[in-house]
Amino acid sequence: MKNFKTLILFALIFVNGVFSETPESDLKNPKGEIEIFVAVAANFKNPFEDIRVAFLKQNPQIKITMVSGASGQLTNQIRNGAPVDIFLSADMDFPLTLFNEGFAENKPKVYAIGKLILMSQAEKNKTFSVQEHLLSQNTKFIAIANPKTAPYGRAAEETLKYYGIYEKVKGKLVFGENITQVNQFISTGSADFGFTSLSTAKAKENHNLFWKSIDRKSYTPILQGVIITSSKESRSKDKISAVYMFFDYLFSKEIQTILTEYGYASAEE
């Protein structure tokens, strides 16, 4: 059974590719534009798209290219010289580490507070507790993001230990590199349940899926931090201005509305 599980997951990863190195640059701007590169934690990919669109409507002279993935993977890419201007992590630890190592211009600032949920593609009994769902004999696979590189995976692991069921369900766990892969395991039914972000449930394509909130006492608050990275190559004055303009925009009232729509809390709440 273990080998069968591994084969299923390997096939899915092979078909869907590696998400941490997939650039997103579909929004085109006029020639002569200022381009900034933003690394975004996988759980924040959907709200970031809305934020990017709103910002570019007001600043068409700027182009924003996004790369998304697990926060730990993105951190390593920044260390290795990836041309990133701003990094939106799914926690505070990874950006703080980069700051302490000299890879950031500022200490991380909380831009959003994430919420963990349990989700399934199949119809489930809403009266059951999280423990009852996961301990059920009908539950064969539970997807979580890699706790070593993905903060939401770490939160999921904390939750299982908080409820005292980690050892009982450990054999059912299957790991995605990030929330994006976990969501694919859920949507394809490859996993009976998956721990993911509330923003996933808020996405239009997932409105009909079963999901259940996780008690926020069961995991360390998911404070998501952002930094402006240090650049090996000198940035032009115009690019520096664009980077700081977008950084400040992340804390505007307009963005707070988007955060609420996707199930995030702001640091000011």
UniProtKB/TrEMBL annotation:
GO molecular function: metal ion binding; molybdate ion binding; tungstate binding
SUPFAM superfamilies the UniProt entry points to: Periplasmic binding protein-like II (SSF53850)
Protein family (similarity comment): Belongs to the bacterial solute-binding protein ModA family.
Listed GO biological process terms: molybdate ion transport
Binding site for molybdate: 71, 179
Gene3D superfamilies, per database record: Periplasmic binding protein-like II
The UniProt record lists the keyword Membrane: no
Classification via InterPro entries: AvModA-like_subst-bd, ModA, ModA/WtpA
Quaternary context: The complex is composed of two ATP-binding proteins (ModC), two transmembrane proteins (ModB) and a solute-binding protein (ModA).
Lineage, highest ranks first: Bacteria, Pseudomonadati, Spirochaetota, Spirochaetia, Leptospirales
Keyword Iron: no
Key words, A-Z: Metal-binding, Molybdenum, Signal
Pfam families named among the record's database cross-references: SBP_bac_11
Signal peptide: 1-20
Name of the protein described by the UniProt record: Molybdate ABC transporter substrate-binding protein
